[in-house]
Amino acid sequence: MPAPILILGGTGHLGRHVVRSLTERGQAVRVLTRSAAGARALLGPGVEVVEGDVEDVAAVRAAFAGVERAVVALSAVSRATYRRLAAIERDALIAALGEGRRQGLRRVVYLSVFAVDNAAGDDLETARIKRAVEEWLRGSGLDWTVFGQPPSTDLFFTLVRGGRVLVAPGGGPPALPTISPRDTGALLAAAVLRDDLGGRRLRLVGPDLPSFPEAARRIGAAWGRRLVVANPPFLLFLALHRLTGLLAAHLDLCGYAHLLLAHILLMKRFPQDLVARAREEHAALRALFPSWEPRTLEDDARAWLARSG
């Protein structure tokens, strides 16, 4: 039997697409998950499942047994785990990869944030955590590749209200790099099977860099209806961010909201110097992965409509 490829975060929003892309290629895939039954229902019977999480030493040892290649798409951004982001996504993950290395792991593809070296993300705990993991990988002796993930195209669909209104906090940025979650899965799956991308950090960029008004127009056209854009004042989000920050230590709901609001504020202030390089980075991805056919915003809009009815 071929050695399985281990996916950490394989049941998450992006990780499940990595699993699907690898199984479509005929690869043996293993996932480490807190719920074996839930993972089998989501991923299908062809995926090997190890029950446990990245903090469970015994489960980690079992998950890495016989594994030479792994993809990390781990996220602890949820109401239940957000207070333990660093413990899970940094400390436990680094320990798990160290255990994997002892068992023969040699190749790792790590899904990080779009940029960890930009001042705009310095206040985000998630960016600081990803930066620490990237620094560890550089000194780990593993063959690693890091992919910087921009907002998923699903962001736009989740901000549609009533099927007719796209909410754009503060109007949104003039342009926003995005990528289909399916494309993220396809590129990470392709990368983990290759041995010529070691020591590289690549930004994931799809063919679209839309503003919110452009996204509303194109999604509406794909759905056969008109979407209007609602622009809640940016100052409102600033005020809510400060208020939830004051209450975060006492109320879990406020703490989680504070984290989500920080990401919304960063999206509005998305560094346009990164946007200016995004088209070149997309072209570089196309050259590195010549068989990749990127999905458009319309492709994802039609798929979203088919799923949601």
List keywords for this structure.
309 residues; Rossmann fold; 12 helices; 48% helix
Q: Can you describe this structure?
A:
- With 309 residues, the chain is α/β, with parallel strands linked by helices.
- It has a domain at 5-150 and 179-205 and 274-294: NAD(P)-binding Rossmann-like Domain (Rossmann fold, 3-Layer(aba) Sandwich), CATH 3.40.50.720.
- The chain is 48% helix and 14% strand.
- It is built from 12 helices and 10 strands.
- The protein has helices at residues 15-24, 36-43, 57-64, 85-103, 125-138, 154-158, 181-192, 212-223, 234-247, 252-268, 272-288, 297-308; strands spanning 5-8, 29-33, 48-51, 69-72, 107-113, 143-149, 160-161, 165-167, 200-203, 228-230.
- The strands form 2 sheets. A 7-stranded parallel β-sheet has the order 3-2-1-4-5-6-9, sandwiched between helices. A 3-stranded mixed β-sheet has the order 7-8-10.
- α5 (125-138) links the parallel β5 and β6 (143-149).
- The longest helix has 19 residues, at 85-103.
- The radius of gyration is 19 Å and the shape is globular.
